[in-house]
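Format notes (please read before filing issues)

Several people have asked whether sequences and structure tokens are stored in separate files. They are not. Every record keeps both together, in the order shown below: the sequence lines, then the token lines. Line labels are part of the format and must not be stripped during preprocessing.
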Amino acid sequence: MKLQTKASQTKHKEVHVKFSSPSEYQLFDQIDGDHSFKSAVPEGYIEYSVRSRPGGRVFYFNFKLAKEMGLISSQHPDALTPLLQEKILQTFSLVIINEYDLIHQRQFPQKDIRPKKYMATRYLQLQHPNKKGKTSGDGRGIWNGEIKHRGTVWDIASSGTGATQLSPAYAQTKKFIKTGDPNVCYGNGYNALSDGLSATLMSDIFHQRGIETERVLALISFEDGSAIHVRASKNLLRPAHLFHHLKQGNYPALKCAVDYFIDRQIANGDYPNFGPQGSKKRYQLFAERMADTFAKTTSRFESDYIFCWLDWDGDNILCNGGIIDYGSIRQFGLYHKEYRYDDVSRFSTNIPEQKAKARYIVQTIAQLRDFLITGKKRTIGRFKQDPLLKLFDVTFNETLQHHLLIKLGLSVEQTGYLQRAAPKLIKKFKKNHAYFEEAQSYRGIYKTADGITADAIFSMSQLCTELPKRFLGQTAGKIDPLKAEELIEIMRSSYARPKDLRTNGYRKRICRQLQKRYLKIVQRVADQFHQGDVRKTLLQMTMRTSVLYGKNNITGDGVLHVTSSIIRNKSKLNFDQVMQVIQNITHHLVHHSALPLPPRSKAKAIVERNLKAVRLYREGL
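Then the structure lines:
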């Protein structure tokens, strides 16, 4: 940019000097491999020496998150200064010195080897032959450390930093792998830039929508297409970190790990004080909080059509219900309930099965709680009727109903009132809603590029958006339900074929019931909040649903398209332009509005093309 005045030159110099001081980035220096988990849970990790990995460039940096964490000043411009870029690469462009390196006596410059060791944590993973967690954990990642800022502690970890002995590849072959070996795919310790970019987009969108998730702090890319993904969260522990010790019956290590997790949650203000370590009350309250968390998390996944591969090991999710490891995470545009991810040796769970898997995780928490309180490990089957499971069931159903009413365009206050005042009506309406939501094409189950699926033929977002408009469009007075054929036409998805949309007697009856109960819901809200004014209630529902269901809802297929587009164009884009593209797309998808971009710029053209593609994929996987 050309500087026009002397004043502007002076201002520019002041900013440059202020944000180029090494002391500005001094908190980065605390990210050096040290972590309190090491002393708290000595059996919970293995350590590796690390060295600098040359050739990296900062592809993405989350300035907003960095400011929350205190890594940069709140006044720092969203610009990658030379010193900041150097600091990011110095801190995170690392690769471990693994067992293969030591066995083959590979030599590295001493100046590149960091003074402290970094940990790869141990946790349970179902894809390992050993089902007690003796061989599993961080297979291609390390924990960089932790930092504290304004009373909050943050964990920072990196994926793509080299092959560890905890990877499935080593567990299955018993051969140590050279990091980056091109003959080894998943187990060579590197990550692809495309995976990191997909995680960046999805995690930022989910975070802005209020869904708990780890967040991408930085992406460091390399010429060979690999990348290091730097991730941050207030607590990166997974249930699998706890279950690892439970399955082995290691009481001291389990107690240390659980106490460590609870203490971190209390310190960060996410839990109230659950009492002293070792007390019965502490572990009861912890177990109840976990049951509540997983019930609410799983109901949100089911309501929002989020595919998160939950299973008995508690690996693919954080203890606080946050999403982690975006390799198999998807959000569907419709309720494609039969979709399963093909992980070569097995298929994943599908969305409806996530509840049962989360429930089993809670059952395992009940076993864990009992072990901590009594000192005796009883079999998991003894806890099938544990009160925790009843708590899970009640919370799951109540939360799922809450999300359904919100999707209709009701406020949080109105939703709470209906759940208290008309539970039977809500239950009946939900049953009618589920009939259409779960309806599948006669085509049946078929293969996709990465799994199997069956097509959903109705779009419930279209129903929630259009129904209040249609009722508002009727003349003043009594509102009559729509004909079944008209209602079906409103809901039909792009996947539906003529055969799928036939209206037999049963379907016509469900159409009438759904509308009758919908109008009863509207009337109850109007009587309670709008002095019986149904049209005012419908108008508010119309306004809310138009915001809730914008044209640019993201799906997994949409994210993959955006990711491919950015990478395909990365040689034409500098860092600032990449950031502009990412920030504009995520802002569009969350707020349904644009951020300013220079006209006829490369970034603007890429954003516009990708938003068009997102709209095409909005009902997909």
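For reference, the curators noted about this record: The longest helix spans residues 505-529. The longest strand covers residues 141-149.
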